[in-house]
Amino acid sequence: MEVLSSDHIEDLFRLALLFSGQRDAALELLVLALSEAQSRTTQWRTQRHRFLWTFRFLSELATKKNAGDGAVAEFGKLSELIRAARPRVRPALLLQSIGGGKSGEVAQLFGLRQGEMRLAWLRYREQSVEAGFEEAAVREAWHRISLSPEETSVLEKSVRPVKIRRRAADRFLALSAVFLGVCVLLVLAGWEYWRKTPDFLAGLRMREFLEVQRQQGPAGIEPFAGSLGAAQDWFFLHGMEDVTVPPPFASVSLRDVRILDWNGSPAACFYIQSPAGMLVVVEAGAIGLAGAFQESGRTRFEDWSGAWAVSGRYAVFLLVRSTEDVLASLLR
């Protein structure tokens, strides 16, 4: 039995015997506990952790099976002292009395409050002193019991790993976690795809142009009056050649303009007087819309309405601080 060392198995047998009062019943409890522990060997890093869990499991198993209260003569006073305590704290007191752990660790193992464990331990110590039962005598009584060769042989033949049964709720939670993970992956994939679409990029660039305009203030503004369709000469004089204006944007009336350097390319930012807004002409490649030729779309954010179109090398953005109906009237 590689699940636990022989010393640990002897301690577990003594615990089962103390609870059951009979060797046959104790052996039966021990087989069940070791079989369960062997099924969970990967859950613990050390033998000691495995022993502590099995010790607790065996005490709970004995309680559930209503193990008898028959006294075992070999335990002497130890049996009486342990049985004098409440059933809830008996295994914790026993583990601490044989040096299996400190008070705080034992309390945590058995789900006891620190104060409850300390009080039970003080009472146990007082009763030990009154009975003239010292710690050395406790451990001597404890180690007086051992497995016989026949009982060891029975254990070796009987202990088999048991299949851990998953509760229906556990299976449901596991399936839900997998389903949720798949949904999250699909959402992330969809988000990544949407981030690369022309509509998303155009809306993002509109916000960026608005923010830059707010930060620039009046500096660098040149006078301009007319429609976008009549600005071909102006574009040529400012180094923006081959600008083709999409027809819906050609009749938009503009006033004043500012030239910005946008990723190494000039961007013409025109102002609209009524309603308040702006129109931007910039190379499509400078804003990540290269290859989206002849694409167009609409967007809405905060109190701004926007339209955009890509024609040839250039993209045109129109933003007004108004409703979509007003934007549509400008583009007619």
General description of the model:
- The protein has 332 residues and is an alpha+beta fold.
- It is 52% helix and 16% strand.
- The chain is built from 14 helices and 7 strands.
- A 7-stranded antiparallel sheet has the order 1-2-3-4-7-6-5, sandwiched between helices.
- α1 (6-20) packs parallel to α3 (47-64), α5 (90-97) packs antiparallel against α6 (103-109) and α6 crosses α7 (114-130).
- The chain is rod-shaped and about 115 Å long.
- It starts with 5 loop residues before the first helix and ends with a helix.
The H/E string reads HHHHHHHHHHHEHHEEEEEEH
Instruction: Report the total helices.
Output: 14
Q: Span from first to last CA?
A: 87 Å
| Strand runs, count | 7
Q: Classify the oligomer.
A: single chain
Strand order of the largest sheet: 1-2-3-4-7-6-5
Name the poorly predicted regions.
Answer: 191-196
Task: Please tell me what the overall shape is.
Answer: rod-shaped
Strand content: 15-25%
C-alpha-based Rg, rounded: 41 Å
Average pLDDT, rounded to a whole number, is: 78
* Helical content (DSSP H or I, runs of 4+): 40-55%
| Secondary-structure class | alpha+beta
Largest sheet: 7 strands, antiparallel
List keywords for this structure.
14 helices; 332 residues; single chain; alpha+beta; rod-shaped
Could you give the topology of this structure?
Elements lengths: L5 H15 L2 H16 L8 H18 L12 H8 L5 H8 L5 H7 L4 H17 L4 H9 L5 H10 L9 H28 L2 H19 L4 E7 L4 H6 L9 H4 L2 E10 L2 E8 L4 E7 L12 E6 L2 E8 L2 E7 L3 H8 L1
Antiparallel strand pairs: 1-2, 2-3, 3-4, 4-7, 5-6, 6-7
Helix pairs in contact: 1-2, 1-3, 2-3, 5-6, 6-7
